[in-house]
Write a structure and sequence with these properties.
The complex is a heterodimer. Chain A is mostly beta strands. In chain A, strands 2, 4, 5, 6, 9, 10 and 11 form a 7-stranded mixed beta sheet that branches. Chain A has a 4-stranded antiparallel beta sheet with strand order 1-3-8-7, with no helix packed on it. Classes of the chains: A mainly beta, B mainly beta.
């Protein structure tokens, strides 16, 4: 157990819809990152939040956005869902360069 | 740009046999290196990490890895594989400027009884 929890565990959305994924970070960690893992691939960095500010972003379009709250929990929002957005979305909280991952949210876009 | 390669997409070993999974990285500074394991449909579990010091690091479940700077490698080893080790293994390097984890493509391990 890493202390990082994600919700929901699974969900199915229709192309064009919007989705919000949630993450509670490990106690004491003020940095949260989100990753997308397509089937059969390694996780790809989406973005990171540090103390409620975006602190880095990978090669993802603006329809991927996020928030971090004062308690360091976080949300990942994806607008205008596309079929290729179907993936496992992983949240990680980090401290001193070590990341602790949640179990992920499996998003299926139909 | 930082990157991680894992030359073996899929490996099959017999239970009880030894295992070595290869990992090569490209990183300008001293890397922080990790191995993660992922069972089907699950999140990532940290097996071991290297930050500095002794180049042979021990991890959980009997795994170890050796950092070789001259070869830019961080290979994962286990002397005797168990059927429960069947999973996907990811090598990763952390871009320390902001804790961004860069993953390799993964190696899928199958274990034959």
């Amino acid at each position: 157990e890493t202390g990082v929890t994600q919700s929901p565990t699974h969900l199915i959305k229709t192309r064009g819809q919007q989705v919000t994924l949630r993450c509670s970070s490990q106690s004491g960690h003020n940095t949260v990152s989100w990753y997308q893992q397509a089937l059969g691939q390694g996780p790809q960095f989406i973005f990171q939040y540090y103390r409620e500010e975006e602190n880095g972003r990978g090669n993802f379009p603006p329809r991927f956005s996020g928030l971090q709250f004062p308690n360091y929990s976080s949300e990942l929002n994806v607008n205008a869902l596309e079929l290729d957005d179907s993936a496992l979305y992983l949240c990680a909280s980090s401290s001193a360069a070590e990341a602790f991952f949640g179990q992920g949210t499996r998003l299926t876009v139909v | 740009a930082q990157s991680v390669t894992q030359p073996d997409i899929h490996i099959t070993v017999s239970e009880g046999a030894s295992l070595e999974l290869r990992c090569n990285y490209s990183y300008g500074a001293t890397p922080y290196l990790f191995w993660y394991v992922q069972s089907p449909g699950q999140g990532l579990q940290l097996l071991l990490k290297y930050f500095s010091g002794d180049t042979l690091v021990q991890g959980i479940k009997g795994f170890e890895a050796e950092f070789k700077r001259s070869q830019s490698s961080f290979n994962l080893r286990k002397p005797s594989v168990h059927w429960s080790d069947a999973a996907e293994y990811f090598c990763a390097v952390v871009e320390t400027s902001y804790d961004k984890v860069i993953f390799g493509p993964g190696t899928s391990l199958s274990v034959i009884p």
